[in-house]
Amino acid sequence: MDYKSINLGQKFRPFDEQWQPKVIPEMNDYQFKIVKLQGDFIWHDHKDTDETFIVIEGDLRIDFRDGAVQVCAGEMFIVPKGVEHKPYAENEVKLLLIEPRGVPNTGYEAANGRPRTMCGF
Questions:
Q1: Burial class (CB in 10 A: 0-12, 13-18, 19+), 103
Q2: Exposed / middle / buried, residue 32 (Cβ in 10 Å: 0-12, 13-18, 19+)
């Protein structure tokens, strides 16, 4: 049997770029993606899947059209499929995203309707 242990702290060290998730392991049809982020993203949703945020370090705010939630280090939050949201971090946040393989982190800018991606997938 092939066992795997992953040190998330070590995985964050080799990169500085933000809003560009890196796939670490995969499990069945799911990808675990680490990402650093700071500032505002754009309003977007994922029509066919939930999105899981696990904050490793820092404080993340996820805005919704009717309010917001604060997700702190050591906490997890799941955005249900089809729910429009916008991540925001005043200071750098390190987090783990869990999504089905092949899900692009794509949103649409309200002003012009053009697609924009978080990571270029």
A1: middle
A2: buried
More confident residue, 112 or 41: 41
**Better-predicted residue by pLDDT, 11 or 92:** 92
- Where are the strands (E) in the chain, listed by range? 22-27, 30-40, 51-57, 59-64, 67-72, 76-79, 85-100, 106-108, 115-117
Determine which of 40-44, 84-88, 114-118 has the lowest per-residue pLDDT on average. 114-118
Encoded tokens for 59: 């404080």
Confidence of residue 76 (pLDDT cuts 50, 70, 90): very high
- Whole-angstrom Cα distance, residue 88 to residue 113? 20
Taking the C-alpha atoms of residue 117 and residue 107, their distance in angstroms, rounded to an integer, is 6
| CA–CA gap between residue 62 and residue 101 (Å, rounded) | 23
Single-letter amino acid, residue 44: H
Whole-number Å distance between alpha carbons of 51 and 81: 7
